[in-house]
Amino acid sequence: MRGSFEKTVLEPDFPFRLFLNDGFESTPHHWHEDIEIIYLVEGSVKVGVGNDLYHLKRRDILIIGPGEVHFFLKEMQTSNRAVIQFRMSIYDAFLSGSKDIRTIRPMFTHSKYLTPSTEVHILMEKQIQQLINENTSAKEGYKLIMKARLYDLAGILIRYMPKCEYSAEAESRQIEKLQKLDKVFQYVDKYYQTNINLEEISKVAGFSLYYFTRFFKENTGVTFVDYLNNFRITKAEWHLMEENDSITEVAYKSGFNSIKTFNRVFKKLKGCAPMQYRKGIKSSPWSLQ
């Protein structure tokens, strides 16, 4: 589980994928080049995007722009979400000039949260459901139909959502910011089992300690300490589910040098003690044991 840049492998001639996720596993902070649309089929899920935390319920739609740092919190109850990912290049045939680029690109730059009963949601939901149906049936010509639905999505956003300016300078700043964050995420992924302090991670990002704490919170929505704890607990979840190590071994493998701290942080984030969590996993309907 990497908390950094996510390299998705999409077909060059049709850079698109759609899959269902039951929300049973946490997804740590990450970002990718793709546009991502989340559609809640059933249940609920909490999604963090930058400094915002969205609590999605059935039929809600969340659009996450390329390069936006986001994460998903684990759901203990039944949940099912459709995840649609595609590249801006899918619109290349339409983006024939700079005016077209300035029109369509801003529609996918920042996250957009759409709830039922609004006109734009009704229109978007219809296209998303058709995408799901076509992707599932995969009948002859389905890619052509799905591409048409993606064009419809862009058209709906352009027509019904507030317009915002596209700036090459803003995009350049965004790329620089993501490069800084990626250094931090990569470092945590490699050294989370060691004692990482704020001074150390600030140097990795190339910032003073004061500026780094502000920078990280503004761009991820959490403090670095909270991010590190969440990352380590996500690792602990995997060990508890997949291995038979003792709780003490799980704590040390996950980067905690104190059992007391591990139990406290785990209970705070997951609502139960590690041993209770393991027992609950083994008796859950998702367990294959």
Automatic annotation (TrEMBL):
Q: Which residues form the HTH araC/xylS-type domain?
A: 182-280
Q: Which superkingdom is the protein from? A: Bacteria
Keywords (alphabetical) are: DNA-binding, Transcription, Transcription regulation
Q: Which Pfam families match?
A: AraC_binding (PF02311), HTH_18 (PF12833)
Example of a GO MF term? sequence-specific DNA binding
Does the UniProt entry include the keyword Plastid? no
Q: Which residues form a coiled coil?
A: none
Q: Mind telling me which InterPro entries this protein's record contains?
A: AraC-bd, Homeodomain-like_sf, HTH-like, HTH_AraC, HTH_AraC-typ_CS, RmlC-like_jellyroll, Tscrpt_reg_AraC-type_HTH
Whether DNA-binding counts among this entry's keywords is yes
What's the protein name?
Helix-turn-helix transcriptional regulator
